[in-house]
Amino acid sequence: MPKGGDAPRTATPVPRGQLVDHVLRRMADDIVLGRLAPGLHLDEQAMAARYQVSRTPVREALKLLVASGLADYRPNRGSVVRQLDSAELDLMFEAIAELESACARHAALRLTQAERQQLLQAHAEGRQAMQAHDMEAYDRANQRLHQIILEGAHNPYLIDTTRTLRSRVMAFRRGQFTRLDRLVQSYEEHSRLVEALLAHDALAAHREMRSHLLSARHATSLLAPQWRDEPALP
């Protein structure tokens, strides 16, 4: 088992057409895990050397990083890691917890039979990844499971709003899976959520999804000091 409860990463060759997404994920991971400090200038040449790619995918990835809210673009300086604090992260997770909980409540009553089978398949893939301690595979299964629930709400307005905010917290939700203990805990939370959905229990589905997202916020606080809640004033 990895030391300190960290889930391992598996190095695999990256197809040329996926380099931008690869660099984007790596930069986002490094920001979430505190390896790229707030306010740091994200120099294209330095980032290209760091991730062993050319400057072209770095340049494109930086644009997407700014769009995701993890970096800011400053004239005459370029992109810098955004000064995001724990209080803002609390509000983001609070909002996404409410939105995805609403999706889960509707999905419990509206999932089609085909979507229920897809949900079970995604959950099974998550179990396999969890047992293999495979963070990347679990992250994919996790995204798929949440996407099925989101679409299962069958409310395009709710889906669009939730997707927009999900993109802002995606890197933090992914980062939590670097800890093996959280990966296992996430799977157990999924199990309770899936059970509620398949039982058509809208109230339980809402409760379990909200608890799951707030648990993810707590897990984020363990990734780097800047994501921890500020101590209460005396």
UniProtKB/TrEMBL annotation:
The keyword Transmembrane helix does not apply. It comes from Curvibacter cyanobacteriorum. The keyword Transcription regulation applies. This is GntR family transcriptional regulator. The lineage of its organism: Bacteria, Pseudomonadati, Pseudomonadota, Betaproteobacteria, Burkholderiales. Keywords: DNA-binding, Transcription, Transcription regulation. Residues 17-84 form the HTH gntR-type domain. Pfam families: FCD, GntR. CDD domains: WHTH_GntR.
